[in-house]
Amino acid sequence: MKSRKIGTYILTALFLGFVVVLIINIFYYLSLLFGAPGNAALFDDLMPSDSYAYGRWAAVFIAVALFSFFVLGFLMPTKKREWRSLGIYEAFIIALFTEMFGFPLTIYFLSTFLGIPLSFGHKQGHLLATMLDMLGILGLEWGWPLVMAVSLVLIVTGFILIDRGWKLIYRSGGELVTEGIYRYSRHPQYLGIILITIGLLIQWPTIITLVMWPILIFMYYQLAKKEEKEMEAKFKEAYREYKCKVPMFFALSFFLLPLMRLMRLLGLKRGGRGDIREIGDEMKEKQ
């Protein structure tokens, strides 16, 4: 029992450190968006745009190990169907990080067979940012940090959901959990995996991972359905009532809640002194 608690503390400490590093990276890319040339120069010194950015197999191993370790540690699969779904997730991140740091198969394919002018620098490997640049919507110097910031926000959110869900299940003692994050999602940990993989796809889309992603989502949807049948058999009417109130993965309120809290802090409450409609009327009168 003590060794299990120690393992839990170590996992939590490592996870917090990992999340802090990701959050620091979010602020770094946001600083690039808001014009901090010194930060951009720092990245260019570490990884010049015109240099070949691949063949870094140690980076592939580290990235795969990190994204595998925390998901495996928090989800703790025990059944064959859980291992099958996790296997698809593992194949997804291995394929993605292999192209991100090892061998850029998608870039080779697009440039060789479709004639799309793509270089082998790291910034240009962020294909969504490169596409925005080619279409004239947003230059690469802005599109690249925007893509990275959005991607990392989704990844961090996904890991936090997995962590929160795991802690509540761990402390429940086998009882039905309907509090905390489970008030908004019946499967917050699987929602976390969905957000992590979406974030990775935004950051570094590849042909293989774009094909694999729908399969991954379908596998976790099927896993969630099977788990719910077991929960209904175990908790009967209590779980059926819970199922009617809470969506499988997410509700719109889950995403609107932070915005509503921010509005309350700003005093933008309905019928209050800072009512949005009153502010709009005052602006019309000034015009």
How would you describe the overall organization of this protein?
- By secondary structure, the chain is an all-alpha fold.
- It has two domains: 2-250, no CATH class; 256-287, no CATH class.
- Helix content is 74%, strand content 0%.
- The chain is elongated, with a radius of gyration of 22 Å.
Structural features:
single chain; 287 residues; mainly alpha; elongated; disordered C terminus
Q: What count of helical segments does DSSP give?
A: 12
Q: Radius of gyration from the CA trace?
A: 22 Å
Give the end-to-end Cα distance, rounded to a whole number of Å.
69 Å
What's the main sheet like?
A: none
- Provide mean pLDDT, rounded: 82
User: In total, how many beta strands?
Assistant: 0
- Element-level helix/strand string: HHHHHHHHHHHH
Structural class, judged by helices and strands? mainly alpha
Fraction of residues in β-strands: under 5%
Helix content: over 70%
Instruction: Outline the low-pLDDT stretches.
Output: 268-287
Number of domain modules: 2
